[in-house]
Amino acid sequence: MYEAGDLSRFAGRFMREWFRPRYELAEFFRQCFIIGYKSFPLVALTGFIMGLVLTMQLRPSLIRYGVESQLPAMVGIAIVREIGPVITALIFAGKIGSSIGAELGSMKVTEQIDAMEVSGTNPFKYLVVTRVAAATLMLPVLVMLGDAISLYGAYLGVNIRGNTSFHLFFTQVINNLAYGDVLPAFIKSFFFGFAVGIIGCYKGYYSQKGTEGVGRSANAAVVIASVMVFVIDLLAVQITDLLGLN
Amino acid sequence: MRTHVHTGTAEPPADPREVVLQVRHLYKSFGANQVLSDFNFTLYRGENVVVLGKSGSGKSVLIKCIIGLMKPDSGAIHLLGKEVTTLNHDELDKLRARVGFLFQSNALYDSMTVRQNLLFPLRRTWMKQEHYNEDEMVRQALKDVGLEHTMEMMPAELSGGMRKRIALARTLIMRPEIILYDEPTTGLDPITGREIVDLIVAIQKKYRASSVIISHDMTCVRLASDRVVMLIDGKCYAEGTYDELQRSDDPKVKQFFE
User: Fold this and answer.
1) Are B85 and B76 in contact (CB under 8 A)?
2) Which of A80, A119, A191, B166 sits between 20 and 30 A of A223, alpha carbons compared?
3) Domain limits for position A231
4) Do A112 and B99 touch (CB under 8 A)?
5) How many independent structural domains does chain A possess?
6) Contact B174, B97 (CB under 8 A)
C-alpha cells in the first residue's frame, strides 16, 4: 500500500511536469525511436506467430461445429479486441519495462541522475516524462502494427489447410469488426503503455542498494507492469460493458 | 593562520577576503543517525579547502547539501551570495551553473560519447547566451585534462583515471567559480591519484576557482589544500593548514597524520 501511494504521487508528478516547459522534445523523439521503432521487430515476430498459431488451433474446433467459414471473423475479433493489445503490452512490459527500470536504476546508483540535476537539468522531466510519454504513445502504434501482422499470420494459417484469397480473408475480418471492437482496444493500449512506462521509471528512479538494486528494479518493473496490464484490461472490459460497447 | 580546534559554536574571527561559501550551524540526520551537527565553515575566493574526515563522517552529505542535492534539517548555506536552502528550483539551477561538482563515481553518462558528456551541461545552461564556440570549449576542456584524443570515445572505453579526468573536464567546461570535489582520488591507484591531485592544483592555479575537496587521502590533503577543515562527530572539529594540523597535539586530529 505504501508503494502504491508512492507510485500514485510519482504519476501525479508526471502529470504536473508533462505540461510545464521546458519540453525535452529531442529526448522525447529519441525515446520514441528506442521504445517504438526498436521494439517493432519483436512485436512483429510475436504477432505473426500468435496469429498463425491461433488460427491453426481454432480451425479443428470450428470444423467440429461446422463453422469453418467463420474462422477469419473469429480470429480477427479475437486479435483486435483482446489478444493483440494484451500480448503486445506484455511483450512491451518485458522489453521496455525492464530496460527503463535497469537504465534509470544504474543511472541512479552511479549518480548520473544527480549529475544531471547539478547540470541545470530537471532529471524527472528529462528522464521520466520523455520515457513515459514515449511509451504511452508508442504502444498503441505497436498494437496496430502488431494486429496487422498478426492478421497476416492468421491469413497464412487459414491457407495452410484451405484456400482463401487475401481479399476475401481481410474483407471477412473487416466486415465483422465494429467500432466497439476497435476503439476500446485502441484506447486501453494507451493505458497499457502509460503503466509500463511509469512503473519502469518509478522502479528505476528510486533504485537502491547498488547493482543488486538495479536488478531488482528491472525485475520488479516487469512483474508489476505485467500484472497492471491485466488489471487495466479487466477494468477496460468492465467499462466497455457498462458503456454497452461489448 | 593558526590552528583552531573548535569546542563550541563560537563564530570564527572576521576575515577581509571575499567569502564565496559560508555554512552556518548545519544539521543533517538520517533517522537516529546525526551526521552533521552544528557544522560551520567558510570558503574564500581562490582558496582550496579540503574537508577531511573518516569514511561515513558526513563529508559527501555536506557537499550534497551545499549544491542543493540534499536538504539540511536546519542551518544556512550561503553560496555565491545566495541562500541555497531557500532557493526555488529555477534559482538553484542558475546558481548551479556557477558551481562545478566532481562526483566520486564520476557520473559520466554511459549512453553518450565524451564530447556529448561535455556538451550536455554546456548546452543546457549556456544555450540562451550569446555566441559561444562549443567545439572550441570542448577541445579546451579536454586539453586542460590532457585527453583531447578521447572526444568521440564512450565512457566504457576509458580507464578509471581517464574517466575521472573527463568528469573534471565536464566540470571545467562550465567555467565554475567554485568546484566541489567528492573524493577525487578514491578508487584510483596512487600514481593516477597523484596525477589527479596535480591536475586539481593546476586547474585551481589556471582558473582561480575556489575549491572544496572532500577527501580522506592524506596525499591529496597535503598537496591540494590551502586549508584543511576536519569533520569529526558532525562538527568542524579543527581547521588550519596541513602543517599546522600535523603538529596538533589533539588525539582526534593526530590520528589522521599517524
Assistant:
1) yes
2) A80
3) 2-242
4) no
5) 1
6) yes
